[in-house]
């Protein structure tokens, strides 16, 4: 009895630091965001007035916010689809392919992930520059001048320029994750399949894909959360929402409202909406991708 | 066994305790006084293009004249972030140098929160007589338009359109300097034939000075004053329409250097746009004399900058030049209000005027020291400048037939979901890319002015 009690006390003491940290740095700030979204405040001095749900009402009619939300959703969807396809493809190639320098490619693909966002913005600045940039210079060199564009200026293109950078950055990280779960698939499955005359493509869809499904499901949630966050960092450094709001994303808009427009409470209301949006979206994605887990 | 558990427990407690200790604030000092009886004046200054040295020199000079005062200088290139924390913690500085129009909008937010003190009494008749005319009679000094000064203009810079002087003067002269917008666009067509674009802008935000100037040029000072106070008819009036149409024409792909918008919206791209003027890809850009220092590293030797006032609408009008000011202000909650006011007044003394004129900055890349004179809005200060481009800009602003205009859009209550910069200047990018027409731009401005007028206090 006494032993059990002291054990419990010990467990409690060990958990305490983590719990205190969580409460202090995650729960309290989150609750605070919800509370502040009901106030009108400037964010510098401590003056505040309670206005109820007024901020949320304004939000519904705010065209800039709706545009930012639209852009965010477009980015999440495109980044998710393209990254999954490319990361799974590269992972499968590196896992099953028989060619030289597999480790080399693994490192190369992973490098974008360890670069800081500022460096990536610099790289893409150099790629997209209209007159000296890599992309336009290359297109001109192969006599496709007609395809050269103002990648950072044309309203219909600029958001895709940002999306491309996001995908480029994300592939390596997810590829490594998929490779890890692919490596865990017993090789005899492939052996048996090849004895039955299955092609590599058939093997991929019948063996690899179903067996890494639970891993892919987990990463879907990661995509939602990390794309919302990373799109803010990329946009803030690469374009700051310009030209004319064409690359504005929800978090960058929230930042601008809270910190440069003197509408801190309104910014927090945007934060609440983004919080609920990502939570609900992750929940929905999790629900609709739920299926029987194959085990080996 | 038990020993182990106790140790583990102690360690976790220690961990939690150190963590919490990190959150605590440091001990408060006794109210603005130090042990040696000196009064502490907390001075927060933005470390920008003017360098750090000047503020240290001013600190020393003030302490020399006020033996019982210890100036505590807080210099930072991210002053807005530092101050935000300080204000939250109740650690309010006594006097601040941080100007309007910064990306962070910090001063604008302070004004919206009514957190800046009225310092009208600093500007008595004696001081006013010493200053450049009208420098405290505009919205950059009197943000609420109530006749009270809240922001002290301590630095002023005439702005205009910058160009390569050698293309318009001297042996290699290629073009005549245009004086009216008609001549300006005619020059654009001529330059286009030579493969040079007429205009570029570092970023759309640089249109602020140009737009203020154009409003004054189009309708005179009265019209300008009404416009910055959000008069309903601003953009539907003949004068307003003239400004909108001229900006739309100027921003069209016919006259703007092709890469302008792409560069303006990329990280650090504004310098590429500025470089395009140096490299002869574009003839003019809106800017101020800081551009000389900003681009010094990539300016070829022998290159000569020139600045002209933005063109007039009619040949028989007077020219207007917009002067940009940088401000010093006192937070409403400052502890040593009187001393802070004394400090603001000190900024206009001969000592500081000379210190500013002799300012030098060190280039962080090459470690070279170069002169970077700062001009105080005190009469006669700019006459002491060395001959050269910078002095020319001040001479131009005070010469016959030229009128100076200063100020900024009037302060309103915070408007949720509204972005002044994006609405007024950001749209200029859209005019260039064809996303927006002049009429749509005009409508956007009319709507914005309506909203702003409702929120004027």
From TrEMBL, chain A:
GO biological process, one term: transmembrane transport
PROSITE patterns: ABC_TM1 (PS50928)
Membrane topology: Multi-pass membrane protein
Keywords: Cell membrane, Membrane, Transmembrane, Transmembrane helix, Transport
Principal location listed in the UniProt entry: membrane
GO-annotated cellular components: plasma membrane
Similarity comment: Belongs to the binding-protein-dependent transport system permease family.
Name this polypeptide is given: Carbohydrate ABC transporter membrane protein 1 (CUT1 family)
UniProt source species: Faecalimonas umbilicata
Taxonomic placement: Bacteria, Bacillati, Bacillota, Clostridia, Lachnospirales
TrEMBL record, chain B:
UniProt cross-references to Gene3D superfamilies, sorted A to Z: Periplasmic binding protein-like II (3.40.190.10)
NCBIfam families: bind_CPR_0540 (TIGR03850)
Keywords: Signal, Transport
Main subcellular location of this protein, as a coarse class: other
PANTHER family: ARABINOSE-BINDING PROTEIN-RELATED, SN-GLYCEROL-3-PHOSPHATE-BINDING PERIPLASMIC PROTEIN UGPB
UniProt record similarity statement: Belongs to the bacterial solute-binding protein 1 family.
Signal peptide: 1-21
Organism per entry: Faecalimonas umbilicata
Gene Ontology CC: cell envelope
Family matches, as Pfam families: SBP_bac_1
Subcellular location: Cell envelope
Protein name: Carbohydrate ABC transporter substrate-binding protein (CUT1 family)
């Amino acid at each position: 009895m006494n032993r059990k009690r002291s054990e419990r006390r010990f467990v409690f003491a060990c958990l305490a630091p983590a719990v205190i940290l969580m409460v202090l740095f995650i729960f309290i700030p989150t609750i605070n965001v919800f509370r502040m979204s009901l106030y009108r405040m400037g964010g510098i001095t401590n003056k505040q007035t309670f206005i109820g749900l007024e901020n949320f009402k304004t939000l519904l009619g705010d065209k800039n916010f709706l545009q930012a939300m639209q852009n965010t959703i477009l980015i999440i969807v495109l980044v998710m689809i393209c990254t999954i396809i490319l990361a799974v493809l590269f992972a499968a190639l590196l896992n099953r392919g028989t060619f030289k320098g597999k480790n080399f490619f693994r490192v190369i693909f992973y490098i974008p992930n360890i670069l800081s966002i500022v460096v990536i913005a610099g790289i893409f600045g150099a790629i997209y520059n209209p007159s000296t940039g890599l992309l336009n210079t290359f297109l001109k060199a192969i006599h496709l001048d007609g395809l050269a564009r103002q990648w950072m200026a044309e309203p219909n293109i600029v958001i895709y320029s940002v999306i491309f950078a996001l995908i480029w950055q994300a592939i390596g990280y997810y590829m490594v994750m998929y490779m890890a779960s692919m490596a865990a698939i017993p090789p005899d499955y492939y052996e048996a399949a090849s004895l039955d005359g299955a092609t590599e493509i058939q093997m991929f869809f019948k063996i690899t894909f179903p067996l890494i499904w639970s891993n892919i499901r987990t990463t879907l949630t990661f995509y939602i959360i990390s794309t919302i966050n990373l799109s803010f960092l990329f946009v803030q450094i690469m374009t700051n929402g310009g030209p004319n709001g064409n690359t504005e994303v929800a978090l960058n808009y929230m930042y601008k409202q809270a910190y440069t427009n003197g509408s801190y409470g309104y910014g927090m209301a945007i934060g609440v909406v983004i919080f609920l949006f990502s939570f609900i979206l992750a929940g929905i994605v999790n629900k609709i991708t739920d299926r029987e887990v194959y085990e080996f | 066994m038990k020993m182990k558990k106790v140790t583990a427990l102690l360690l976790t407690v220690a961990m939690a305790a150190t963590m919490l200790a990190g959150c605590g604030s440091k001990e408060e000092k006794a109210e603005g006084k130090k042990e040696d009886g000196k009064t502490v004046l907390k001075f927060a200054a933005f470390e920008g293009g003017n360098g750090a040295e000047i503020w240290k020199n001013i600190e020393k000079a003030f302490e020399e004249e006020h033996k019982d005062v210890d100036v505590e200088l807080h210099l930072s290139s991210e002053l807005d972030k530092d101050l935000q924390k300080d204000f939250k913690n109740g650690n309010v500085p006594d006097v601040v140098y941080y100007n309007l129009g910064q990306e962070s909008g910090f001063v604008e937010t302070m004004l919206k929160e009514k957190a800046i003190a009225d310092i009208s009494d600093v500007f008595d008749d004696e001081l006013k007589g010493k200053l450049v005319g009208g420098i405290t009679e505009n919205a950059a000094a009197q943000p609420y338009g109530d006749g009270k000064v809240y922001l002290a203009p301590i630095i002023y810079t005439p702005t205009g359109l910058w160009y390569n002087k050698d293309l318009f003067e001297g042996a290699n002269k290629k073009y005549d300097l245009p004086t009216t917008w008609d001549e300006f666009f005619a020059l654009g067509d001529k330059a286009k034939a030579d493969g040079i674009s007429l205009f570029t802008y570092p970023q759309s935000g640089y249109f602020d000075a140009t737009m203020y100037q154009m409003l004054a040029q189009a309708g005179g000072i009265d019209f300008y004053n009404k416009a910055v106070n959000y008069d309903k008819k601003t953009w539907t009036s003949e004068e307003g329409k003239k400004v909108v149409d001229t900006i739309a024409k100027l921003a069209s792909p016919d006259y703007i250097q092709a890469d302008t918008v792409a560069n303006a919206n990329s990280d650090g791209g504004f310098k590429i746009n500025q470089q395009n003027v140096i490299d002869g890809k574009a003839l003019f850009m809106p800017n101020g004399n800081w551009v000389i220092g900003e681009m010094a590293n990539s300016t070829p030797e022998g290159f000569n900058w020139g600045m002209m006032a933005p063109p007039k609408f009619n040949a028989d009008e007077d020219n207007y030049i917009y002067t940009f000011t940088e401000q010093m202000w006192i937070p409403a909650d400052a502890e040593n209000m009187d001393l802070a006011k004394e400090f603001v007044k000190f900024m206009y003394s001969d000592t500081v005027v000379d210190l500013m004129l002799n300012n030098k900055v060190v280039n962080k890349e090459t470690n070279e020291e170069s002169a970077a004179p700062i001009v105080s809005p005190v009469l006669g200060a700019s006459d002491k400048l060395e001959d050269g481009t910078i002095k020319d800009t001040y001479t131009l602003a005070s010469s016959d037939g030229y009128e100076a205009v200063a100020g900024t859009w009037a302060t309103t209550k915070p408007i949720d979901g509204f972005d002044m910069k994006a609405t007024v200047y950001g749209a200029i990018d859209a005019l260039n890319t064809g996303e927006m027409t002049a009429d749509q731009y005009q409508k956007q401005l009319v709507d914005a002015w309506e909203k702003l007028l409702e929120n004027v206090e």
